Amino acid sequence: MHSICNRRYPGSARKRCNDSLPHVIALLPGQPRAGQLASPPMEDLWMSTPRRTRGQGFITPLRPTAYLLHPDPDELNPAQVSHQVAHGFAFTDVQNLLSATTQCGEQQVWRRILGQPQSRQRSRRRQRPARLTPQQSAIALHYACAVELASEVFGSLALVEAWLVRPCFYFGGELPLDMLSNAVGFQALKVYLQQLAYGVYA
User: Fold this and answer.
1) Nearest-5° angle of CA 143, CA 116, CA 144?
2) What share of residues in the chain are helix, strand, coil (percent, to 5)?
3) Which of 175, 113, 130 is nearest to 150 (CA)?
């Protein structure tokens, strides 16, 4: 079964992206200098930071979509994914996803997922709903897929996080993070990342 995100870019595509689009990387903090690798491939990145689970010690970190889709995103067909989204993702699963993929922008992502102002968000956190609504779950899944896809292009979670909250000319000055609120915006983001990966867009 293909990944729910529908794309895993080969290392050669990541290299073409880095070679042909230095202006994209230059906009992001912590970018590597010439001749220095941006990061290990994402297959290695998910294995680089151990995660502790109850009774099992340290295990390999999960891919972003694996925090939300059970038992394995690659084993689910679209109908099964749709069913899980309609049922609503567990609040704790989304919380674990954001903890694993954000360093300082977790609240920005929560605001997009919950679709609420900051004051109402604090109140909602105190209530701790067991599950998100289907609409909120769809945005959470868009975010997880976006992190996986962008990580293939930029090579590190830090660069992905910085890119998501910077205005993007391709999106008319909107933040990539704001493109995740609906399916059409998410599709546009996937197309853009594909163009970056293969050096088509400049």
Assistant:
1) 10
2) 60, 5, 35
3) 175
Question: For residue 192, what are the contacts with CB-CB under 8 A and spacing of at least 6?
Answer: 168, 170, 171, 201
Cis omega (within 30 of 0) on the bond before 71?
yes
Phi, psi at 69, each rounded to 5°: -100, 125
Q: Of 114, 119, 98, whose CA–CA distance to 164 is shortest?
A: 98
Q: Please tell me the distance from the alpha carbon of residue 95 to that of residue 110, in angstroms, as a whole number.
A: 9
Interval 40-98: pLDDT, tens: 444 445 443 434 344 444 344 688 999 999 988 989 999 999 999 999 999 999 999 99
Cα(77)–Cα(56) distance, rounded to whole angstroms? Answer: 29
DSSP structure class, residue 54: T
Tokens representing 171?
């999106």
Chain segment 124-179, per-residue pLDDT in tens: 556 678 999 999 999 999 999 999 999 989 988 899 999 999 999 999 999 999 99
Closest to 139 in 3D by CA, of 111, 99, 180, 101: 180
DSSP string, 154-176: HSSHHHHHHHHTS--GGGTT--G
Q: Residue 90 forms beta bridges with which residues?
A: 131
Between CA 1 and CA 30 the distance in angstroms is 35
Instruction: Indicate whether this model's pTM tops 0.70.
Output: yes
Contact by Cβ (8 Å): 161, 85: no
